[in-house]
Amino acid sequence: MDTEEGKWPWQVSVRFRGLHVCGGSLIAAQWVLTAAHCILSRFHYSVKMGDRSIHNQNTSLVMPVRKIIVHSLFRRARTVKNDIALLHLLQPVNFTSAIQSVCIPSEILWVEAGTNCWVTGWGKTSQGGDSYNAHAKRRDTASAGDSTPGTMISGCGHRILRIVGGAPAPERKWPWQVSLQVNDKHVCGGSLIAHQWVLTPCWPEWSGVPGRGVVWRGRWLLAVVVPVRDIVMHHDYSSRGTISDDIALALLDFPVNYSTHIQPVCLPEKTFLVPDGTTCWVTGWGKLEETDKPDKAPKMLQEADLTIMRYKECNRLLKRLMKAKNDVVRKGAVCGYSDKGKDSCQGDSGGPLVCEYNETWIQVGIVSWGVGCGHEGYPGVYTEVSFYVDWVKRHMNQASCLDSTAFLVLLLCLVLPLGS
């Protein structure tokens, strides 16, 4: 039967010289899993993804294949054996509601006989028939992508400074939220945007600081801790007068595996502007009250809903309240406010401001600065992610070219039982 649009976002069409030859599945931002018997040559391959039609090019993404790895023991004679191959894409793809990765099982997982699973593809719908749009069949066999209980959510934007006036966030609700730490002490928040990348604000103090690391602070004693290899700060960052270009990337020492507690958030497209008045959410471990001492910061992640204010209106408001002559909020920033006194505060810096669209969470902002915490009538200022998304992708792609094998590392030891 024909599938619904977007139902199997990891399904791809493997193409040779522009023609569909086989199916495949996206397992990471730059890797596709397919069958070895599909490989007819080492060159001229591409992968099409993003919609259910193998013919329509306007609504999908076609990515060239950089490298093909066929299992060394693959055999065609009599019985096909070791029929598996990996396709390394030319560059990482950006996860969207239509493009997501599927989870790979651990070595100890055995699917039980009689389990109902699903298989998808663009093969013939009858012997001798023609190929058509993507279709799916239910099988009593194993298939990656089965949505049975216990399967981890895959792709970005899904979830199985402190927040003044907020509330503790339920476990696993914000699986992209991370704590950036120096010598085991929380410094600021951040968000996971890929297996090896965290989005955070600029901190000049980061450079050369030993003991830098990223922590997923679920149940603290069982959290995943990953060292930070490098920090890429925006070249135009300035904290003189008004903070601007407050964005940085943290490159982790190794990729993390996604789990129910660890998932990436989606990045918006460059043209995306979150509308004025939209309700979004900010999260972090910052102070609960402006006058609190640092040691009074909450141990549990806090959340608060805020209303979006575009930068021009926000600038007019803050200029008047601060009695400033020059602009204080410029293009590249967005603001959030609450009539109930909710706000981000010290310790929340770097935390994500996220909005939900079509059941997918998109990061629209990064906690940057504000006037106090939760002051009535004073909106908080956030770095607008869409304004810098090209900068983010460029630096991620540059690092990928230098160390492309890193995106394939599957460190199963990092998938820890963080609790329910």
Automatic annotation (TrEMBL):
Molecular function terms, GO-annotated: serine-type endopeptidase activity
Record has Glycoprotein as a keyword: yes
GO annotation terms (biological process): proteolysis
Domain of life: Eukaryota
Domain called Peptidase S1: residue spans: 1-397
InterPro entries associated with the record: Peptidase_S1_PA, Peptidase_S1_PA_chymotrypsin, Peptidase_S1A, Trypsin_dom, TRYPSIN_HIS, TRYPSIN_SER
Keywords for this protein: Disulfide bond, Glycoprotein, Hydrolase, Protease, Serine protease, Signal
Any Pfam family hit: Trypsin
Listed PROSITE patterns: TRYPSIN_DOM (PS50240), TRYPSIN_HIS (PS00134), TRYPSIN_SER (PS00135)
Name of the featured protein: Peptidase S1 domain-containing protein
Organism: Oryctolagus cuniculus (Rabbit)
